[in-house]
Amino acid sequence: MRKQIAAANWKMNLTLQEGEQLLEDIISLPHQLSENQEAVFAVPAPYLMMAQQKLRGKENFSVAAQNCYSKKNGAYTGEISVDILGSIDVHYVVLGHSERREYFNESNAFLAEKINICLLNNITPIFCCGEPLAIREAGTQNEYVAKQLQESLYHLNADQLLKIVIAYEPIWAIGTGKTASSAQAQEMHAAIREQLASKYGKETADCISILYGGSVKSSNAAEIFAQPDVDGGLVGGASLVANEFVAIINALKK
Ligand code: PEP
Fold first, then answer.
1. Does the pLDDT value for residue 37 go beyond 90?
2. Ligand 1 pocket, 94 CB below 6 A?
3. How far is the CA of 173 from the centre of ligand 1 (A)?
4. Ligand 1: nearest atom to the Cα of 174
5. Nearest partner of 39 among 76, 49, 54, judged by Cα
6. Is 189 a catalytic residue?
7. What pTM value is reported for the model?
8. pLDDT tens, residue by residue, 72-90
9. Domain spanning 4-250: which superfamily?
10. pLDDT tens digits for 121-153?
11. Which ligand 1 atom is at minimum distance from the Cα of 217?
12. Domain residue spans of the chain
C-alpha cells in the first residue's frame, strides 16, 4: 500500500516558542499512525533542529525543510543545502510550493535541479504542482499540471521517481478557504497518476504517494483522504492548530 502522509506546512508563521508548544500539544493528543502512515512537519529553517529534538523517538513523525538550494555548497548567502539538511538528519523537503513559484520565480527547470540534488543526497522531495484559477476556469488544468511534471520530473528514471512524493495543490484553494471538492481532487489525482503511468508504467505510478493541498481542515480531511488516489494532504493554516492537525492525521486512510 502507498504511504499515507499528513504534512504540515507552517510557512513563515509562529515564533520558536509557539512552534515548540504546538509540537508538544500535537504529540500529547491521541493520534493513530499505522506503519504506512507518517506525519511530516515542514517548519521554518531555524526550527528544524528544535523539531527534530521534539520528535526524536516518535515513530512515523518526521521533519521537513520548506525549501533547499540546487547547489551542493558555496557562496549562496541565505540558502540551505541538502548537505546542511542531511547533517541534521532532515530527509524531507517541500519543493515547488506555489508561493515559491510565484514570489521567488522558481521555474519547472530550476525545480528539476533541486529534485536532482535531493535524490543524490537521500532527501525526499515533496514536489508541489497545481494550477491557478484562470487555468481551472479554462478547463486546461490537466495539461498545465502535466507540463509541471514533465519539466521537473520526467528526466528521472522509475527508481528515482519512486523516491518522490507529489502534492497536488490547486492554487485557487491554497489559503483561500475554498477547497476542491473530493470529486475534483480525485479527478486530478487520477489524472496525475495516469500521466505518470503513461511515462513510467502503471506499477510505478501506483506506488507514488500523491497528497492533496488546499484548505484541508478537520471537517473535510476524511472525505478528501478517502478518495482512492489521494494519499493524504499538505496542510497550511489548519496545521497551526494542534487539535485540527491531529484530527487531520487521524483522518488518513487506514
Ligand atoms: C499549503 O500551504 O500548501 C496549503 C495548502 O495551505 P492551506 O492549507 O492553508 O490552504
1. yes
2. no
3. 8
4. 10
5. 54
6. no
7. 0.97
8. 999 999 999 999 999 999 9
9. Aldolase class I (3.20.20.70)
10. 999 999 999 999 999 999 999 999 999 999 999
11. 8
12. 4-250
